Write the structure tokens for this entry.
Amino acid sequence: MSTDTQPIRVWDLPTRIFHWSLVASFLIAFLTAESEKLRDIHVAAGYTLAGLIAFRLLWGFVGGGYSRFAEFLPTPRKLIDYIKSLIKGRPQHHVGHNPAGAVAIFLLLGFGIIAAASGWATYEDIGGHFMEELHEGASNGMMAIVVIHIAGVIVSSWLHQENLVLAMITGWKKIRNSAHENPAG
Ligand code: HEM
Ligand code: HEM
């Protein structure tokens, strides 16, 4: 079998702009959270993050190719098969998001929605101390998943000897023709 590589268009421009804008808005919101003086920046970053997530939820249905939720919805079956393949030391290769990465993605989106909604409520003095705690908890929860997400990106780049970060920048992946062992193709 030939082992030459073939370029595949994996992430469209809207998905890539979404990703790096989400990174920026989350980091800005997180870093400005403690300061009364920077509250306007904090709130603006938080609303930006909410808008980005709203866009991504829409794009998951109307967007194309590997960005569609139907393409990477992590069912328990897919997740278990993926974890088994890791344990056996023969990790399934996915051109789009792998099932473990997909779980992290939905958690990031979920925590982002809760953080933005509870932040808005706190700002409007709705929900009192509980809402503040929820806001801080969701934001810290999101940060925890971000750390796991970045570790996952590094580990799977290494496992498959492919540069996932570059793919999220350029949109292209070089796929080894011999790397098509994943059942989905
Ligand atoms: C604030 C931090 C971050 C958040 C909230 C975040 C969130 C996300 C989300 C939601 C996706 C899914 C993309 C989509 O289909 O729409 C994703 C994918 C991805 N992220 Fe991040 N991300 C963060 C930081 C980073 C950083 C710092 C890197 C680079 C080191 C990175 C690299 C990637 C890559 C390579 C993918 C695609 C993974 C794959 O090939 O399946 N992310 N991220
Ligand atoms: C979605 C991204 C967001 C993240 C990651 C985030 C993160 C945080 C964190 C960690 C705190 C706690 C700071 C402390 O220790 O006191 C905080 C406080 C706060 N955030 Fe956000 N926030 C976000 C969005 C928003 C939005 C959209 C609003 C308003 C519309 C908002 C309004 C506030 C307010 C008013 C506080 C102060 C609460 C208090 O007095 O304890 N945040 N934010």
About this structure: The CA atoms of residues 94 and 182 lie 6 Å apart. The longest strand covers residues 5-9. Residues 15, 18-19, 22-23, 26-27, 56, 67, 97, 101, 105, 108, 146, 149-150, 153, 164-165, 168 surround protoporphyrin IX containing FE (ligand 1) (CB under 6 Å). The chain is about 65% helix and 5% strand.
